[in-house]
Amino acid sequence: MNIGITCYPTYGGSGVVATELGKALAERGHAVHFISYALPMRLTGFMDNVVFHEVEMSSYPLFDFPLYTLALASKMVEVAKYENLDLFHCHYAIPHATSAYLAKEMLASERIKVITTLHGTDITLVGLEPSFLPVMKFSIERSDGVTAVSRFLKEKTLTNYGIDKDIEVIPNFVDTRKYYRNPEEDVRKHFASPNEKILVHTSNFRPVKRVPDVIRIFDEVLKKLPARLVIIGDGPERSQCELLSRELGIHEHVKFLGKQTDVIHILSLADLFLMPSQSESFGLSALEAMACGVPVISSSVGGLPELQVHGQTGYIAEIGDIERMAKYAIDLLSNSSKHQIFAKAARERALEFDASKIVTQYEQYYLKVLSGAETASR
Ligand code: GMT
Questions:
Q1: How much distance in Å is there from the Cα of 84 to the middle of ligand 1?
Q2: Does 185-351 match 2-173+355-377 at the fold level?
Q3: pLDDT tens, position by position, 20-65
Q4: DSSP letter at 7?
Q5: pLDDT score, position 375
Q6: 105, 43, 40: which is closest to 70 by C-alpha?
Q7: Using CA positions, which residue lies closest to atom 9 of ligand 1?
Q8: Ligand 1 atom closest to Cα of 302?
Q9: Fold topology of 2-173+355-377
Q10: Disulfide engineering: 18 pairs with which of 7, 89, 237, 246, CB 3.0-4.6 Å?
Q11: Among 119, 204, 288, which residue has the most ligand 1 atoms within 8 Å of its CB, making it the best to mutate?
Q12: How much is the CA Rg of the chain, to the nearest whole Å?
């Protein structure tokens, strides 16, 4: 198949899924064309069957706001024509699904199909704003195929937008051939001394991630056992979180690493992964941690209970219940045989979301949509 993939190129789950999917499809012999305003973060180095098309934005004094949706639609038309695309696969609905709808109309072709994958905040947050809601509903309804990364997100979409459409649930995935536990002592000594436990959190530091909760949970853990907290990522609340760790007097035990492209080495050293989010449609970074044999303490929101099994791969608590999450963390970190059992269960659970299985689901879904078997409404 000739596949056009559009995603946000920045640090974020939807861009990671889109890029890893594109790379896996290219390995399977499909021609994959990434269309975005910058090179996706995980698209590094040459790869056979993969081409990147940059959406160029011209500026003009009249344009107070960049017209990305339109520029993207024009680039999609160009790539579809020259590369004979069979489908556009849009990751994160706003504005990608809208641009794809426009491109399809401009191409005036019934042949090319638009598939939209809903990832999370496109549905639960941004899309609900009155300035976006009608166009979101329209763009989802007009997509030839729609997938959601969890059952939770599918239900949210149908109820929040009053949409009557088949939505296929295809969960996030991880390449367990690359993501496995392979701790390097040389790397570990940069983070902790041998007697200290390592807790990890990955984040874009948006309020929805509740990073201050991560720090408060760690503060409680530190009162009971020697430990270090490693936080990967960057975003609006980072300074506030750095300040909080100073106010609590634990800053020497907390390492803010900023954005990292390769997290496997760090996850391989982790004893526990924290994800106390306010909202999480799936929790890709928790899955990547689980693949590296790291149990997860998370909130009970969204798609997280579809991923992790309470009392087996980690523990789940109510949003904001710092005390309980800290109790769970201390319990696991101070009982090594229990920790070992949880770590093994986390890895086994992650294997159920291995790329080999989930990429096949996408391939089969593409074929279903291309054959016209996927209907516009339920
Ligand atoms: O909001 C984010 O954290 C980033 C966002 C994205 O779309 O880039 O992540 C969402 O998509 C990921 C990949 O499908 C999911 O694993 C995340 O759970 C989801 N985030 C939220 O729902 C908050």
A1: 31
A2: yes
A3: 999 999 999 999 999 999 999 889 889 999 999 999 998 888 888 8
A4: -
A5: 55
A6: 105
A7: 13
A8: 22
A9: Rossmann fold (3.40.50)
A10: 7
A11: 119
A12: 21
Q: pLDDT (tens digit, 9 = 90+) per residue, 125-158?
A: 887 888 899 999 999 999 999 999 999 999 999 9
Query: pLDDT (tens digit, 9 = 90+) per residue, 160-206?
Result: 999 989 999 999 999 999 999 999 988 899 999 999 999 999 999 99
Average pLDDT over residues 292-310: 97
CA atoms within 13 A on the CB side of 172: 31
pLDDT at 109 over 90: no
User: Residues near ligand 1 with C-beta < 6 Å?
Assistant: 12-15, 17, 92, 119-121, 149, 172, 204, 208, 279-284
- For 60, residues 6+ apart whose C-beta sits below 8 A from its C-beta are none
Domain boundaries, the chain: 2-173+355-377, 185-351
Ligand 1 pocket mutation, candidates 211, 282, 285, 319, criterion most atoms within 8 A of CB: 282
Q: What superfamily in CATH does domain 185-351 come from? A: Glycogen Phosphorylase B; (3.40.50.2000)
